[in-house]
Design brief:
The protein has 300 residues and is mainly alpha-helical. The chain is built from 12 helices and 5 strands. It has one domain.
Length: 300
């Protein structure tokens, strides 16, 4: 886990031939051939996209020498992590806002969120980027670390592929409401425990009382059962106001308010990144401690 985190820190995401990009193309091909307004069709498509790769990796890990299995562990988790990429995208927004370049900040945050960015004010751009850091802290970092700790490389792969399909198919639109149902529900299940661990991590690494208060009172109002705790606790930990109305496809949609305290700005983005990095260090330290205790118990 530490080696994968170091690789992500040094190299970031692969610039060419990213495996998730290739997976996305394959998933699109499967969708074109299997799409139907049926939940069963979506479940079949999800299974064909995810399960063969996870099964092959599981077999490889079980029948490989220890050194090769360890190398595969590191490579797969490195590919599943997106910490440095998230950091770079968020910093682009923060630097543009700090320099007073609102148009550049809108373009930069448009690479992080799905909402319309042209009508956003500076504080709304900062809020969107901060929300993305907090939510993707779970999706691109802590969720992968959790499932890697539980199931090794196959677990990290399962989580990231499922999360990718949720991002592609998990929408309540005419095309995906039934076809994407399986992708959305499976992602909810896989994210249930990691999301709450992420929320608690934010609380530990930020303003604890505010994080727990916002988590308890605001998370239930959010549509997503997992994004709600993560974003509410994160906003509380940072003591910043997030959420509120946001534009999607030309329409401003009402969303609950999250957090408390100051309005979001460039500094809030930087503080969210520092919160995330502190959380990763905490997880690595706890994992190392647990590993040493287990190793000592086995030797005893």
């Amino acid at each position: 886990m530490l080696a994968a985190a170091v690789l992500d820190r040094l190299l970031g995401e692969p610039r060419r031939a990213h495996p998730l990009v290739a997976f996305g193309r394959m998933a699109s091909w499967i969708e074109r051939h299997l799409h139907a307004n049926l939940r069963a069709s979506g479940l079949l498509a999800w299974s064909l996209a995810v399960l063969p790769s996870v099964a092959l990796l599981t077999i490889l890990q079980r029948h490989s020498p220890a050194w090769l299995a360890c190398c595969v562990d590191v490579i797969v988790l490195y590919a599943a992590l997106g910490l440095r990429s998230l950091h770079e995208h968020a910093q682009s927004v923060a630097h543009a806002l700090a320099a007073g370049k609102l148009d550049d900040a809108r373009k930069a945050v448009g690479r992080m969120v799905s909402r319309d960015t042209a009508p956003l004010s500076a504080s709304q751009v900062a809020a969107a980027a901060t929300e993305s850091v907090l939510e993707n802290g779970n999706d691109a970092v802590f969720g992968a670390l959790f499932w890697f700790a539980v199931l090794g490389a196959p677990g990290a792969l399962l989580f990231r592929l499922a999360n990718t399909l949720d991002a592609m198919w998990g929408y309540r639109t005419a095309r995906y409401e039934r076809f994407g149902w399986a992708a959305a529900r499976i992602d909810d299940v896989l994210n249930f425990i990691p999301a709450r661990l992420t929320a608690f991590t934010y609380a530990l690494c930020g303003n604890f009382d505010s994080a727990l208060r916002c988590w308890r009172t605001q998370a239930p109002q959010w549509d997503s059962p997992n994004a709600g705790p993560v974003m509410a606790a994160g906003a509380g930990a940072l003591r910043v106001k997030l959420g509120g109305a946001a534009p999607y496809q030309g329409i401003w949609e009402a969303r609950p308010e999250l957090g408390e305290g100051a309005t979001a700005n460039a500094d809030a983005i930087d503080r969210a990144l520092r919160l995330l990095h502190r959380g990763v260090l905490l997880w690595l330290a706890v994992t190392l401690l647990v590993g040493l205790v287990l190793r000592g118990g086995l030797h005893a």
